[in-house]
């Protein structure tokens, strides 16, 4: 309703920030049946390059929502890096390596999806106040047609590293600000050699020429410190540092985008503060090395969406929403730690060379490579599923399984597209179907058979799994044993009491 120049909107969840993380969350909330309104200050998707890397786990999540076909066939790189040291990223799975998708395209894809599911996206709206009460939150934003007041049961800050929500509510955000920084720019009309993390006597230089002729350059002068910036750097500064480090002149080029990013490292002490939650860079601030920041945020959104939707709809089990903080804060802390190490390897001067040389010898060892690739890709994430449930595949994401369902080919990722839980039965246990029947409004029972060899990640003998909506295994039957009591306990833990969910 409208009151003069003030419009009041009532919804279940207010999402602040319509970048990739906020849009991913909006779609997940709609899949879970929650009404959602997104406030975004920009009037359209970003036109800047920004984050352009999607890792294997994120590609799996998009596959699980039926979104990959809309991306076409983006370029893929099987080689990444750890602190500038080459690292092979190929691991078992359908999407090995890293995939190059401009952030603007990712936003367009997620916006189309979220809107088609019924999410409301209010562009050109800048949040300037947010209050949280015992039973609701209220956000006030300035828009093109006046003030908009959004009243909701919960709010989620997805508004980036300079989060307005975080500034307004001032949650504890420990860590450190940037000490060193990289300057970067997308430049047309220059011709410089491609460089992949080339360490020169005076600094670090990176250059990559795209198919359209635009070159992205990144540069850091060893010993320089991060400036306290209120705006992006001028291209002249980038060109001057580039010449000082490489001896090459690029000032005659046409800058399309200029940016500076530092090695700041901060993480909220809690991702949930009552009815206000945080996701993506609003919850953790880190140097954007290897695309990990964007992927970490998108995975935050997928973990949170189904839990928050179940909470607002009613019937969510106790502690479900708090498990978002428990699970994702631990993952975020681990990522920030590895990014901090990489920042030192990249931006440190001559004193880091012995360590770089040692890692250069260790990383090609397969066990080391697999460990680091699993961390960077997100494929190694496992969540605790309760006492006595520490054996794989419990807690891990279920790898892609080629299946035959009702006589037709399918995959385990296809089963997740409705956004609900899945009880996948590879042995046709009628008693499992009966045990899960009271949760049929939240968990879909599917009898199937494997259409090929067992992939790595599904141990021999595992013949039934309960999947959360994010694709992680909450319960498994193995070695001919299928405990209905164990299944019911897992169903209660993650989906609530039978019959209590709203229709």
Keywords:
Glutaredoxin; globular; alpha+beta; 29% helix; 11 helices; Alpha-Beta Plaits; FAD/NAD(P)-binding domain
Helix-strand blueprint:
Layout: E1 2-3, E2 6-10, E3 13-16, H1 20-31, E4 36-40, E5 53-55, H2 56-64, E6 76-77, E7 79-82, E8 85-88, E9 98-100, H3 103-116, E10 120-123, E11 126-132, E12 137-143, E13 146-152, E14 154-157, H4 164-169, E15 175-176, E16 181-188, E17 195-200, E18 203-209, E19 215-221, H5 235-246, E20 254-262, E21 265-267, E22 272-273, E23 276-278, E24 284-285, H6 292-313, H7 320-347, H8 353-362, H9 366-377, E25 402-405, E26 408-411, E27 421-425, H10 430-436, E28 443-447, E29 449-450, E30 462-467, E31 473-478, H11 484-495
Parallel strand pairs: 2-13, 3-4, 3-14, 4-10, 14-23, 27-28
Antiparallel strand pairs: 1-2, 5-9, 6-9, 7-8, 11-12, 12-13, 15-21, 16-19, 16-20, 17-18, 18-19, 21-24, 22-23, 25-26, 25-29, 27-30, 30-31
